[in-house]
Amino acid sequence: MERENIGNLIVISGPSGVGKGTVCRSLLKKIEVVYSISATTRRKRPGEIQGKDYFYYTREEFEKKINEDAFLEWARVYGNYYGTPIEFVDQILHEGKDCILEIDTQGALQVKEKRPEAIFIFILPPSKEELIRRLTGRGTENEKEINTRIGKLEEELAHLCDYDYKIINDNIEIAAEKIKAIIVAERCRVKKNK
Ligand code: 5GP
Q1: Which atom number of ligand 1 is nearest to the Cα of residue 39?
Q2: Residue 167 — φ and ψ, nearest 5°?
C-alpha cells in the first residue's frame, strides 16, 4: 500500500563561522535535496544574490509577513530578523522532496514544536579557537559583528542536546558526506515518527 509520499524536513544549525553554508553547498552536489531560501532584514553581503542567498526585506516588510503567518519559524539573530517562508517548504515536502533549512537554534526549536518529525543536525567546529579563526578570517563581518557572533557561541552550543545528530566540520567534503548518509538513512526509515 502506498503511503502519502511527504519529503523529509532537515534542519541544520551550528555556530556562525562553522561552515554551514559551505557544507550545505557541497551536500547539494551529492544528493537531491531542496534548500529553503530564508528571508532576512540583514544587509546583503558582496556577492550575495536576492532570491538565491536570501530574500532581503525591510523591517516593515518582514513584520508584515510575521503578522500574515507567512513563516514556519522566525527569529532575531545578531540584531536582524531571519525567517523560513512556510509556503515554499510545504510545497517542496508535498512534492515528496526533502527540504533543508539552515537556521539558528531559536528557529530550530520552533520547528521542533511544529514539526517534531523533522531531522535535526548540528554542525560543530573542530575547536572553539578554530571557529574564532574562521570567523575573523572570512572578512564578511566587521569587528563588532564578529564579537556579537562569538558572544552567542556558548548559547548556541548549549542547544546541541536538542538535535538528533552532530557533525564535526574539520573537512567540508567528509562533513557533507556524513549529512548525506543521514538523509539516505532517514529515507529508509520505516516509522517516520521518532
Ligand atoms: P548569516 O547572516 O551568516 O547568513 O546567518 C546568520 C545566522 O542566521 C546563521 O546562524 C543562520 O543559520 C541563521 N539563519 C539563516 N536563515 C535563517 C532563518 O530562516 N531562520 C532562522 N531562525 N535563522 C536563520
Answers
A1: 19
A2: -130, 125
> For residue 134, which of 12, 13, 18, 15 has the smallest C-alpha distance?
18
- Beta-carbon neighbour count of residue 38 at 10 Å? 21
Q: Which of 121, 122, 124 is nearest to 186 (CA)?
A: 121
| Maximum C-alpha span of the chain | 58
CATH numeric code, 3-188: 3.40.50.300
- pLDDT attached to residue 136: 85
Ligand 1 shell residues, CB under 6 Å: 16, 20, 38, 42, 73, 75, 77, 82-84, 102-104, 106-107
Rounded CA separation 148/162 (Å): 23
Residue 163 CA, ligand 1 centroid: distance in Å: 17
**pTM score over 0.90:** yes
For residues 152 and 104, give the distance between their C-alpha atoms in angstroms, rounded to a whole number: 11
* Helices H / strands E in the chain, number of each: 8, 9
Low-confidence residues of the chain, pLDDT below 70? 1-3, 192-194
Residue nearest to atom 2 of ligand 1 (CA): 42
Distance between Cα 152 and ligand 1 center (Å) = 13
Residue 165 neighbours by CB under 8 Å, 6+ apart:
119, 120, 121, 122, 182
- Under a CB-based contact definition with an 8 Å cutoff, are residues 111 and 118 in contact? yes
